[in-house]
Design brief:
Blueprint: E1 2-13, H1 41-67, H2 72-100, E2 127-128, E3 132-138, E4 157-163, E5 168-175, E6 178-183, E7 191-197, H3 198-201, E8 231-233, E9 238-243, E10 258-263, E11 271-276, E12 283-287, E13 292-296, E14 325-329, E15 337-338, E16 355-360, E17 366-370, E18 373-378, E19 382-385, E20 390-393, E21 400-405, E22 421-427, E23 439-441, E24 447-449, E25 453-459, E26 475-479, E27 505-510, E28 530-533, E29 536-540, E30 546-550, E31 558-564, E32 578-584, E33 587-592, E34 596-602, E35 614-616, E36 618-620, E37 648-652, E38 667-673, E39 675-679, E40 684-689, E41 700-701, E42 704-705, E43 714-719, E44 723-726, E45 730-736, E46 745-756
Antiparallel strand pairs: 1-46, 2-31, 3-34, 4-5, 5-6, 6-7, 8-9, 9-10, 10-11, 12-13, 13-14, 14-15, 16-17, 17-18, 18-21, 19-20, 22-25, 23-24, 25-26, 26-27, 28-29, 29-30, 30-31, 32-33, 33-34, 35-36, 37-39, 38-45, 39-44, 40-43, 40-46, 41-42
Helix pairs in contact: 1-2
Signal peptide: 1-23
Keywords: Signal
Region (Disordered): 101-125
Length: 760
Amino acid sequence: MRSALGALLTATALLVGSSTALAAPPAGPADEAATQVKTTAATVARAKEIAADLKTASDAAAAAAAADPSNVDKQAAAAAAAAKYATAQADADAEQKSLDGVNGGIAAEPTNPTLPADFSNPAEGQVKSDNIEWLSNSRGLPNQSQNPNNKNGNYAGATFMKYENLGYDFLLGDGTGGLSIWSLKNPEKPQFVGGVDSYKLRQPADAHGAADPDLVPGSTTRGFYEGENPTVDSRRKLAFLARDPRAYGSAHPNGRTGLYIIDVSNPWKPEVVTYHWVPAGHTATCINDCRYIWSVGPANNGSKVNGQPQDVAGVLHPEWSGVPAFVTDVRDVKHPYTYAKPVDMGRNNNKTAYTHSVDVDQNGLAWTSGFGGIRGYYTNGKHKDPTTGVERQATATDPVPYAGGGVPTLETPEQYAQVSVEHNSYHRTQAASDTSPATITTAAGRTINKTDLQYVTQENTVGCDSTSGGGAGRFVTTSLAGSYDGKAWDPSLDAADPNKRYFIEKLDDYTPRGLPGATGGTGGCSAHWFTVQGDLVAIGFYAQGTRILDVSDPTDIKQAGYFRVPANQATGQLASNTSAVYWHNGYVYVADYTRGIDVLRWKDPIKGEVQPKVCWNSCDDSQTPAKVKTSVDTTVGNGPGGSVPATLSLTLGAPATFPAFVPGVGATYTAKADATVISTAGDATLTVADPSTTANGHLVNGAFSLPQPLQGLGVVKTYTGPVSNDKPNITFTQAIGANDALRTGTYSKTLTFTLSTTNP
């Protein structure tokens, strides 16, 4: 399937009346920085507009106070107005700096760069299914910066970044050695080009801890730890690494947590921009297009008191059993700011527990995982809060609950939320361009809504045959049905009472124990980080390596493939100890705690519908989407003939443009778009959708949207056979009511046109 992206619908609002119509509307909840989906020229302009208005008000209040210096009320009003203006101006400055940071990366590859040393771990005797092919390995930085000849790569996680100026992607991975970066110009054999090692991540003494120790050659002192789930801002070419308090040889409850912000615009020479203390630091995730970061976990955050994590002010919290999510504004990367109030509080049946990770779905919902289950939140837009029944603005600092709850585990009721942790999760969504059925019918005949599905890792790091804590952690499929009314936030829940805990439905679970490719009883056997493509899950299982799971029937998970490398003491070959597995652009990349990065090819077709956005950790518009095969050759007979490559071609013309909208006059406006379709498929469907999470289906003008929806979205035309140079009729209509408030400027929306086929 090929999609043509970027058709832009525009309409200009006609300014009518006196010059007072040009005055900016007063700031409201929708203008809050923390509710903006993305930094744009419009968000910058609006922030400056608000600051200018508040400056005018501040100047007027100051003049009134100066004219009447003995008036206490006027003096207080002037001080309050000045403070409001200062806050608004700081916000406008941060907004501008965020936009100024957008870049396409280094303009060109450096000439004859000096590359860091690397090592390729072999994969002799690899244990794998026939549908997986091992392609290559790269260690990147060694696990111990002080011992550069170590073969061990040690990567807890990885992510990808598109470099628009170079035209290809880079892979970023982090672990105890620091941050490593690989060029994927040859995606089958990544080239290690640069990194930031543990020496460069050391911090001097400050209020939160002693100076990080020297890393003496020959010693085994652990360096950086661990950035387990790295998150990146592809638009600004930034990498964010969470620092765990166990870094540099420390242990709970000592050490310190924090956030490193690294400029990777030149992947050959990445540079640390900022280290910022945050009272959380096991994993971190970009929220609202990396305007904000949610830093989470672990059990303690350097409070120096067992069982009592600290908050931003250093206050100890014995009522917390772990660290929740702390929110940091990173629009100005040189001056990040962490808010005092954490989010995802009371996650374990009203007890604040260890939040382990945050994963954003295709619709922009942020899903937290940790002791006590999984929870989803809106972080932008206006939504009904199920805990109050009141509609309010969702923000990164005050999100609106969506759904979720506890996930049934194999622990005893007394052990619940103490041994097996909900490690990470993935919410299944269905993009507008995905025209497949909205439900799944299981083998047993049950119908399940696709968007009710939540895939979850439960981590318990024991061997396959261990029964400790209920046994090794599993991969679990669950249903969110019934949890959308705020059940997980019910104040009557009580973590201490097994009869007052709320659980969502568990559909099935998976363990590699006893299945083809397993090591046996003693090897690490817990589920860990995973990614999803269609109906296939690629997941790491520690010593059990990589597993590919078929979840097309979520009530019956099937193992579809496997890969692991055994140790070879004679040659020194390192065994798999897999942390995370990633689908990316037609390949599978494995982040391994011992081997570094392994590259695999999945040789079977991808089952199910591949979504247009690539989502794990954050959900990034700029990530390179999955490759989908669209071409086959057809020949006839043994004599002269020819082949027709399978072709789906959609060419868009000029943007569709409405006439000027006239305020105060009820009318319906029409705009037409031009397109040309060529298809050699047995059938084809042309659809148009609004992929935005901001006022979906409505034209927008900065922070404002039209009250009435845009008409013309959905299926434009269906084809029952091949077609050449067809000109479909694409018509959009927009109703404007006489009482609809219109904002001066241009209302527009970028739409996604998709030409798809089920019979190429």
